[in-house]
Amino acid sequence: MTTLTFLGAAGTVTGSKHLLEVDGSRLLVDTGLFQGLKELRLRNWEPLPIPARSINWIALTHAHIDHSGYLPRLVRDGFQGPVYCTKGTADLVKIMLPDSARLQEEDAEYANRKGFSKHKPAAPLYTEEDAMAALKLVRGADYGEPVELSERVTLRFIPAGHILGSSFVAADVASKGRDPIRVLFSGDLGRYNEPILNDPSPVTEADFLLVESTYGDRLHEHTNPKERLAEIVNATAQRGGKVIIPAFAVGRTQLLVYYLRELEEEGKIPVLPVAVDSPMAASATRLYTKHKEDHDIDMQRLDEKHENSLATKNFSLVQGRAGSKALNEDKGPAIIISASGMATGGRVLHHLAQYLPDAASTVVMVGFQAAGTRGRRLQDGEREVRIHGEMIPVRAAVETIGSLSAHADRSEIMRWLSEFKRPPKQTFIVHGEPNASTALKDRIISELGWNVTIPVYKEEVELT
Ligand SMILES: [Zn+2]
User: Fold this and answer.
1) Most Cβ neighbours (<10 Å): which of 65, 323, 368, 424?
2) Where in the chain are the domains?
């Protein structure tokens, strides 16, 4: 018997965990942390309905923490099998999981100091040691390379165009005397016609399909992000201010640098000092350069010319805290890209504290800003924000470039689905808020006439 159980990202966008069971053997696709509202984060503490040690294999679609961040906990709880993913993902989780562990440890330490945890003392969900143990199990595969888990189950990773190493996972399940069935897990679907990474690969066949729906009810802004960036940089440079961009370390930072380099080469912006001030973004940028198998055709051309496409003319990847502080002593216009993307923590807070009161400077929001975050407050036009316990007046301009998302929007999801040559027997919509998932379901039914369901948390379905 072959079954699928939805252990996360059902009715929400985080905590992706999908269990495929084939005659008692267990493959868990994605090991995501629940993130965001407290009610969701508490789910990370609930035991899984199955023991971690009963899972035979894990496969990761990509390295984002809402798809990979629960792995150290599973290893701590007894999982000992191999973890398969692409080579890009294998490298990225090496920097992301230890970082996630440090955040877990800091949270626990903070809870103990403030005394607000019910557990005494508060323990982290996992430690850096657990993350290091998990990394020992990770095995990188090439795109398209068959990974034989057992006589009955074979995996393949297919480029998804979302972040470095991101993939769809195709699981082919063989059975005697019958055609094999293919279960395809979309992970997160990327964008078309973006620089650096390949487009999402067309998929033409699957018997059972899981598709994400983060933006299932929305279309991205159609403004050209590069032109907007040029306008903002030019206006700020004329005022003699700094451009501060809180950005996700993996993906958005590299895209911004790519656009800034092009704008400089095209003479559309002046050559300014550009600093990427986040240790993780610096490491991720090196990995983006290294993993040529992920590069689209324009990146390949630049690679052949040995040009560093992920650096501008006056560019620095800032390492230590001293370098970060020195940035704030430089006078004159400059561009600082720094994490975290929603200004909830990280080094960008120091730059915001310094330049928010400066009317010549501009803060640019480039990613989704969740409710309750500092980034969202700035975006909503608040005139004061609290940083490191101090109220900081907002005199800098605050701009948003809404078209820089790493997720396919409704029309891009539909474009990808329209490549299928025959409808899947069943399509499961996952990884979306209820409104987004329902909107996508209705659209797939009306435009493609497929059999679509939205599974609920812990639902089990037999695949026949
Ligand atoms: Zn993702």
Assistant:
1) 424
2) 2-218+406-462, 225-400
